[in-house]
Design a protein that fits this description.
The complex is a heterodimer of chains A (about 100) and B (about 350). Chain A is of the alpha/beta class and about 100 residues long. Chain A contains three helices and five strands, in the order E-E-H-E-H-E-H-E. The longest helix of chain A is centred in the middle third of the chain and has 17 residues. Chain B is an alpha/beta fold and about 350 residues long. Chain B folds into two domains: about 180 residues, Beta Polymerase, domain 2 (2-Layer Sandwich), CATH 3.30.460; about 130 residues, no CATH class. In chain B, strands 1, 2, 3, 4, 5 and 6 form a six-stranded mixed sheet that branches. Chain B has a two-stranded parallel ribbon with strand order 7-8. Classes of the chains: A alpha/beta (about 100), B alpha/beta (about 350).
Amino acid sequence: MEVNITKQDKVTTAQLIGRLDTPASQEVAKTMEPLQENAGGTIILDCSQLEYISSSGLRIFLTLRKAAMAKGGNVIVRGMNEEIRTVFMMTGFLNLFQIED
Amino acid sequence: MADSHHLDLHCRIILEEYQENLPLFQQKAEQLHALLKKTLADAGLIVASLEYRVKAEESLIGKLELKGAKYKSLSDITDIIGMRVITFYADDVDKVASALDRLFTVDWENSVDKRKLLETDSFGYLSLHYICSVEDFPYRFEIQIRTVLQHAWANINHDTGYKSGVEIPKRYIRSLSRLAGLLELADEEFSKIRVELTDYRRRVQQLVASGNLDEVPLDGDSFRNYLELKPFNALNKRIAAVNQAEIQEVTLMPYLPAFLELECKTLGDVSRLIKTYSEGAFQIACYQLGLTDLDIVSSSIGPQNVCFAAILKRGGGQAGITHFLDQVNGASDGNAIMARILVEQAANLPFMNQ
């Protein structure tokens, strides 16, 4: 599992590559923790190369959402594949984020 | 910069006292401003703005030039520190005034309610001026309270460059008066709207609390009140139990447009819709979550799946679900795919075939 974080002005993009399963999530959480500092702006979670997400992965997304709500920012989840989008639908997570194709 | 050289000795002494105490005035003004800000916030009074200033030296010199003899000492000048509270509503002017009355000692002899000074057949500068003092400070200070509209009128009137109404050419006085009357009327209307809205909200709350849901039209206010009854709790808990999942509480307000489209006209309709389609909603969740180890759901799972079940059962099909997803979650190409998957999954569920 790989996470590439880039920042341009007020937009921070985290590109997630691979499988965000429970074993991987601890390290991903740590890698993504600094994103919370940018939660006042826009955070884009680029999932176009994300193959799988577990509950622990959803919790990482949720933590970012909470930080963004507290700071008046915005989290965009972009490019989810069909499987991940289904996970978002069946957990009631679809309307918690701004979803982009 | 105003020149103080031509001031007489008496006025120069007053000016010197001002200059010596300027840092004190500034410090006190900040303190009073902070105190007033906190008091208004504690009283739940939301105001458009709360400003303060310490009188500038030029302005004081100007005042001394004009009527210096009137003042025995600096403490006779009551507006060295000035604060201004601008309210949204006319009835908040009195609420702010009563808060000030509790907070400071008001010098009633010198305080003016310009609202009451106006003749019954004229309109104009409406504002409340309080001259106040506090125990630990030897100088009085002035607080003006007015509404946004009164403030706009006063500012524009001031901008004409005429200091008093007498100087203004008559035709403009008439125009300005007409405007003042119009704004006064607008202030009254705004207050009336607020009172009526508050009444409406209270009535809705009472009806919701007493369970008379059929009497409450479905709108933003009533839906928010209804959500406080946690109408999806039972369903959400039932769904979460499938995987012993934790429930993440989120706002359910985005579902209001969907319930309106599902022809819910009252809260009673929403309540019946939930009752009718909870079983279908649960079956969808069971089918989807049962084969996974997902142990987290958001509280929107209940309303989402109730809407899914209602749309599908009423024959809305894939197009109906896509429209619903677009409406609640924002338009996206992926919504049509989700809708297709859902329609396929639901086809074999018991609730669709009953």
